[in-house]
Amino acid sequence: SICWYDNAFLPEEEVRISPYDRGYNFGDGIYEVFRVYGGRLFEAEAHFERLRLSAEGLKLALPWGIEGLRAAMSELVERNALSEGTVYLQITRGVAPRNHLFPAGAAPVALAYTREVARPVQAMDQGISAITLEDIRWLHCNYKTLNLLANVLAKQEAAERGAADAVLHRNSTVTESSASNVMIVKDGVLVTHPANNLILHGVTRAVTLRLARAAEIPAEERPFSLDELYGADEAFVTGTTVEITPIVSVDGRKIGDGRPGPLTRRLQREFSAAIG
Length: 276
Ligand code: PDD
Prior knowledge:
EC number: 2.6.1.21
Protein name: D-alanine aminotransferase
Keywords: Aminotransferase, Pyridoxal phosphate, Transferase
Number of domains: 2
InterPro entries: Aminotrans_IV, Aminotransferase-like, BCAT-like_C, BCAT-like_N, Class-IV_PLP-Dep_Aminotrnsfr, D_amino_transT
CATH topology of the largest domain: D-amino Acid Aminotransferase, Chain A, domain 2
Largest sheet: 10 strands, mixed
Bound molecules: N-(5'-phosphopyridoxyl)-D-alanine
Radius of gyration: 19 Å
Number of strands: 16
Strand content: 25-35%
Structural class: alpha+beta
CATH class of the largest domain: Alpha Beta
């Protein structure tokens, strides 16, 4: 398919990544994953705003401007005739001889590609199992950086232990999962970790909270413990690729009756309606 690399649209075979790209050498960069429904970027505004905040956090310039990036992403979706799928956009600090200091002359390098992906209907319908792991990441998890090693290790450990995902916790406070946000339901109240520096401020998380408010489902953004997760009536993850996927067991213990709960189902329906 067609990629957008270093300001040009070109076939993937023609993309040539420099060995000296700081994304490659240091993980010195940021990214976004956008969902495309019906050929359109879903919640584009929110993703670009988060990209802007990530860039600010890493003191990374965005010479294209958000408008330039938005135009490029739309053109990429069009060129690949993408109807259902994702767009991956990453921006690194550029190409320079390896030195931890920011390079003086280097310009940021952007890469974007698309992928056809169907909605995860089976997981959304049946739910997934999760394990819990200590959240060993740094303290700027609100920046969407290329440094995903802790997330990768967590997801891999989950798979090796027969689970679909890892729910992360700091000293028993649940933060999020390896690649999505976590919400629980107890006595009709939706609870999720506050949007501070310890989690990624998920676009799907925000959409879900908005849908909950519109449906007059009480929602609290507050820290909750592992014990609250184990004892929840319902639990689910939210994310660009997982949408709203129920968690039906954690560390081998059933959540609720071990099946996706009614409030989760309701929010899934609202979400499907919202993506139209
Ligand atoms: N992951 N938390 C983490 C650590 C994430 O990596 C993601 C997204 C989310 C959910 O954010 P959003 O709703 O904006 O997608 C939460 C992307 C999809 C990824 O890395 O593939």
